[in-house]
Write a structure and sequence with these properties.
The protein is an alpha/beta fold. It folds into 2 domains: 5-157, GTP1/OBG domain (Spo0b-associated Gtp-binding Protein, Chain: A, Distorted Sandwich); 163-339, P-loop containing nucleotide triphosphate hydrolases (Rossmann fold, 3-Layer(aba) Sandwich). The protein has 9 helices and 14 strands. The strands form 3 sheets. Strands 10-11-9-12-13-14 form a 6-stranded mixed sheet, with helices on both faces. A 5-stranded mixed sheet has the order 3-1-8-5-6, with no helix packed on it. Strand 5 and strand 6 form a beta hairpin. The radius of gyration is 30 Å and the shape is elongated. The protein starts with a strand and ends in a 20-residue tail after the last helix.
């Protein structure tokens, strides 16, 4: 099942309490405070995994918490730091704060990490140097651990593709992606056969040496109809998956079986894209007339070709059934992508790498990670 939205709750682990204890050992002439510090609570991280392509795992399991820190013990035994919890999400997932709506992170590459909830700090025991002073040699003060951070998050998956296929239902999008890639979506002769997006990797230069040919990723989106921005049909729910694409391939059925005006069809879908996002309406577009094998009357095909020429749009006529024009279309798409620069990472995205290094500077590293039964010493935090 393809799931592209989910709401989850995450909570960092609570910090352990500091301990109040005094040494009572034989042959030790002077005892002293020996209460250990509590361990820090674990963090909750989100990490992008290239092997995931859906948020299905978060549809029914929505609450996640990290391990709490252990309490301090006597003999200067410090509590163990709680284990972190790592949640895998697909590449292309955008993380929002469910309460404020603020975008927190955008996973654009595999292996990126985002700390969603920070663990609570462990409390200090009475053996901590912060409490022990020459004038106060037997402190009974200690600190309780701090609670972990709690957040409500909304996850939204936007597929990462170079080209988005849009058009009316049964315009030939699924047949085309099955012809140019290894994707095998369901194909049938009725509208709205495609109920969820599909991705396919296309090799543009099949004759090139292995590893040197151009490749690009195509997303097949469920068909749009007039009024989709108001929820008609499948609505515009899946259009967010074309927001990241660099190029839109607009497929128009010009076959004899379609009694609609191809130019009018193009304009309808164009208006639906603009109603969803003005940025989609300005994306570079290639017009693709489909089902050429079933087109005997070329008048409407020529009308669409002339319309594309006046608009300055690249035009291709293809037949996915016979393969006519497929090679030229694939190379045309690859050439168009070569001319379109890849979007530069925003300042926010460039700063996201800092969160990946938080683990290195996290106060957790100051904690002794051994078992609480092992005495250890650390500096005051």
């Amino acid at each position: 099942m393809f799931v592209d939205e989910a709401k989850i709750s995450v909570k960092g682990g609570d910090g352990g309490n500091g301990c109040v204890a005094f040494r009572r050992e034989k042959y030790v002439p002077r005892g002293g405070p020996s209460g250990g510090d509590g361990g820090h609570g674990g963090d909750v991280y989100l990490e992008s995994n290239p092997n995931d392509n859906t948020l299905l795992r978060y549809r029914y399991n929505r609450e996640f918490r990290a391990d709490r820190g252990r309490h301090g013990e006597g003999s200067d035994c410090h509590g163990r730091t709680g284990e972190d919890t790592i949640l895998n999400v697909p590449v292309g997932t955008v993380v929002f704060d469910a309460d404020s709506g603020e975008q927190l992170f955008d996973f654009t590459e595999p292996g990126q990490k985002f700390r969603a909830a920070r663990g609570g700090r462990g409390g200090r025991g009475n053996g901590n140097p912060a409490f022990v002073r020459p004038w106060h040699q037997a402190p009974r003060e200690h600190e309780d651990g701090k609670p972990g951070e709690e957040r409500h998050l909304r996850l939204e998956l936007k597929l990462l593709a170079d080209v988005g296929l849009v058009g009316f239902p049964n315009a030939g999008k699924s047949t085309l992606i099955s012809r140019i890639s290894a994707a095998r979506p369901k194909i049938a002769a009725y509208p709205f056969t495609t109920l969820e997006p599909h991705l396919g990797v296309v090799l543009a230069d099949p004759d090139a040496a292995p590893g040197t040919g151009r490749t690009f990723v195509v997303a097949d989106l469920p068909g749009l109809i007039e009024g989709a921005h108001e929820g008609v049909g499948l609505g515009i729910r899946f259009l967010k998956h074309v927001e990241r694409t660099r190029l839109v391939a607009h497929l128009v059925d010009t076959s004899d079986a379609n009694d609609r005006d191809p130019v009018h069809d193009f304009e309808i879908i164009e208006r639906e894209l603009a109603a969803f996002s003005p940025d989609l309406a300005t994306k570079p577009t290639i017009v693709v007339a489909t089902k050429l094998d079933a087109t005997t009357d070329r008048a409407r095909l020529d009308e669409l070709r002339e319309f594309a020429r006046k608009r300055g749009l690249e035009f291709h006529a293809i037949s996915s059934a016979s393969g006519e024009g497929i090679v030229q279309l694939v190379r045309g798409i690859a050439n168009a992508l070569d001319r379109i620069p890849k979007p530069a990472a925003s300042s926010e995205a460039s700063n996201q790498a800092e969160d990946a290094a938080i683990k290195e500077i996290n106060p957790h590293t100051a904690m002794d990670s051994g078992k609480s039964s092992t005495p250890s010493h650390r500096e005051d935090h």
